[in-house]
Every structure is written in structure tokens, then in C-alpha cells.
Amino acid sequence: MFLIKTTLVATVLAIAAIMMLALLIRATEWEGRTTASQETVTEANAQ
């Protein structure tokens, strides 16, 4: 029984860690997109 509980806790922790990593990756991708679009806007304004 103890082994089953430990496995469940480990699985939940692993899923939570993967979700956090995915959110971090998405956040950095989104930041990269917004900065890139802002650069495009400033270039268009310069012309």
C-alpha cells in the first residue's frame, strides 16, 4: 500500500513539473513573438 501511494505522489509531481515546464516554454515563446512584432512595428514606423 505504501508503494502505491508513493508511486501516485511521484506521478502527480512529475505531471505538475511537466505542466510547469510547458507553461514556461509557452511564456518564453509568447514573449519572443511580442518583442518580434514590436520590432516589426518600429521598423514600419521608421520607413
Characterization of this structure:
The structure is a single chain. It is built from one helix and no strands. The longest helix is centred in the middle third of the chain and has 45 residues, at 2-46. It has one helix at residues 2-46. The protein is rod-shaped.
The helix/strand series, from N terminus to C terminus, equals: H
Strand content: under 5%
Number of strands: 0
Task: Tell me the overall shape.
Answer: rod-shaped
Our count of helices gives 1
Main β sheet profile: none
* Helix-strand category: mainly alpha
Mean pLDDT: 84
The CA-CA distance between the termini, in Å, is 70 Å
Give the radius of gyration: 20 Å
Extract low-pLDDT stretches.
none
The helix content is: over 70%
Transmembrane segments: 6-25
Keywords: Membrane, Transmembrane, Transmembrane helix
Quick structural gist:
By secondary structure, the chain is mainly α.
Write out key terms for the chains shown.
47 residues, mainly alpha, transmembrane, transmembrane helix
Q: How are the elements arranged and paired?
A:
Elements: H1 2-46
